[in-house]
Structure formats: C-alpha cells, structure tokens
Amino acid sequence: MTATTTVDESRLEAFMGQFVQDCGGGALIPMVIIGDKLGLYKAMAGGEPTTPAELAERTGCKERYVREWLSQQAASGYVSYDANARTFRLLPEQELALADEDSPAFIPGAFQLLSALVRDTPHVIERFRSGDGLGWHEHDHDLFEGTERFFRPGYLANLVSAWLPALDGVVEKLHAGAVVADIGCGHGASTILLAQAFPESRFVGSDYHEPSIAAARRSAERAGVVDRIRFEVATAKDFGGGPFDLVCVFDALHDMGDPAGAARHVRSQLAGDGTWMVVEPQAGDALEDNLNPVGKVFYAASTMVCTPASLDQEVGLALGAQAGEQRIAAVIREGGFTTVRRCAETPFNLVLEARP
Question: Would you tell me which of 34, 123, 271, 298 could form a disulfide with 243, CB atoms 3.0–4.6 Å apart?
Fold first, then answer.
C-alpha cells in the first residue's frame, strides 16, 4: 500500500523560487573569481561608465568574453547597467565590496574560499563514508588564501576599533608595549593588523601549516612590520614564547581536535594578569537559533572544513563552526580559565574574553 502524499503547491512554488536564488548564488562563484583575478572590478573602479570593448582593452581580455561576464554581473546586481547608453559601471557601494581590498566590505575572498570547497567535495564525500578527518593542510590552496581574504575585512573593520577596546585594560598594555600571541594565524592578516596598530608591542604568530607561515612572513615583509612580528610553525598545544600579555585565537578554536588541551596550553603561556581573546563564528546555542542565512553559510563551512579538520587531530572533539557561546565557554573553562564573558559581537562573530 502506498501512502498518498499531498503537495502544497504554494510551498513548492516558494521552494523553487528559493532554488533559483540559490542556483544564481552558486553561479556567481566563478563569475566573481574571474572579475577578481583578471582585474575587471578594479579596472571599473571610479564609477565611470564603460562598454565591454573599453573594459576588454583596459584589462587585456577579449571583448566577447567581457560582454558576457558584464551581462551576468548586471543580472546579479554586482554591476549597474544603463540600457540607454549600453554601458556598465560600478556604483560606489559595489566598488567597496568588489574592487577595494582594504575595504571592510570586500567580498571576493568569500567566493575564492567557496570555490575551494567545491573542488574538495570528492574528498569530503569519502570522509562521510569512512568517518576519517580531512586535515586543513589537505585542502585546495584557494582555501588558505580565500580564508585570509574572507576574514581580513571583518578584522579590519572591528579588531582595533571595537574588539580590543572591549577587553579590560588590553589597549593600554598594547600602547605601552605588550607581548602578544596569535594562535592559528594562517596567512597572518590578524597579526599584521595588530602590529600596524601597536608599534610598541611585539607579536608571535603561529600555525601548524608551514606554507601559511611562509605566506605570513612574506606579507609581514610587504607590510613593513618584520621588526615586531615573528611567525613560527607550531600547534596550539606546543607554541612557546610566553608569558604573553594577550593571546588571540581568531575563528580557529572550534577547528582544533583538542580545544580544551589548547586552552590549558594557552593558560600556561599567559601572564598572571593576561587576557585570552577568542573570536568565534556567530552562533546561538541551539540548532534552531542558527537556521538563518549566516548559519546556512557557516554550517556548510563546518561540514566541509571545520568538522573534518578537528576529526583529523587527536581527540577529535569536532565542535563545529556553530558550537555556540555556551559550548565554547565550557571548553575554555575546562582549560583553567575562571572568567569567560562575551565582550563584543558582529553579525558574523562572537568575541569572548577569558581570564585565569
């Protein structure tokens, strides 16, 4: 006997509308990467109208390809189109998001990151069947660079202006000359921003991924801050150089196999009056709190990167990117910290201050 299923046509229609939007979002991944890598967005900076032929000439590309790309970008709302003049341009808001790498609204890094996840899908499918982890180091190279370019605008917008001032007495220490550790620093964007803002302090960035540390060292040279930054290959459970006045972990604690063990090691490297700043993805403590556009992105990243990375390490706690404040705070307290408080937040981040 087969049960009769009643389909609500209005719900189906709404779902298909959502599908069209999501499909268009997925189609933007290669389009934005093309515009970013070929300098098409930057060539449109300034807001002057351009034709496909003019943009092709400025960027050394072929007009027919550029025309199709511009048409897709106009359909997506990523560039603006004047039907009367048949020209395209970037509005100031679009320029900030697509052409200015020092803008707090810069977004192409997110698409670069997503492209890496698509390429890594076969590897994650294998892990679904085997239960094994997939180490950060095993992912496509664009994940490492895309992650830095995705998170850097948020750090640029908030780290010095909002997050650090929310910590008790930390900014004063940094101006006077503090010793700071940045654990899981990746390509070093957060460490370099700190060093640029506080020239009297000294910084140690560490990450277990050697190619990322090499990239961080090159970035520090370009930024002119090598006199006050040292980058080293180390895990969260064996970095050294303390006692530190401030230890930072940006969007990385949930990726660790043994975050409680990392917390204990941070505690051992922290000065008696030191502070641990933990920045984590924005998340509620219950699944239903995270069924929203931000959770849609972060659960996907967690499935593809964060949970597999943790499962590849010892303990393999696999907190996931949407662990929530209560779970993260419990792990921090397990490491020997007595005080944990939320001191700041954005739509994408929770910022916790932990003290011994």
Answer: 271
Contacts of 224 (CB under 8 A, 6+ apart): none
Domain-by-domain residue ranges, the chain?
Answer: 11-98, 155-355
Cβ(89)–Cβ(80) below 8 Å: yes
Spatial contact of 156 and 104, defined as CB atoms under 8 Å apart = yes
DSSP per-residue letters across 209-255? -HHHHHHHHHHHHHHT-TTSEEEEE--TTT-----EEEEEEES-GGG
Distance (Å, rounded) from C-alpha 231 to C-alpha 219?
A: 11
Tokens matching residue 281:
């993805």
For 33-77, the pLDDT digits (tens) are 999 999 999 999 999 999 999 999 999 999 999 999 999 999 999
Hey, what CATH topology would domain 11-98 get?
Answer: Arc Repressor Mutant, subunit A (1.10.10)
Containing 58, the helix (H) or strand (E) segment is helix 52-59
Predicted structure pTM score: 0.93
- Please give the CATH superfamily to which domain 155-355 belongs: Vaccinia Virus protein VP39 (3.40.50.150)
Q: How confident is the model at residue 28 (pLDDT cuts 50, 70, 90)?
A: very high
Q: Residue for token digits 């003049």?
A: 85
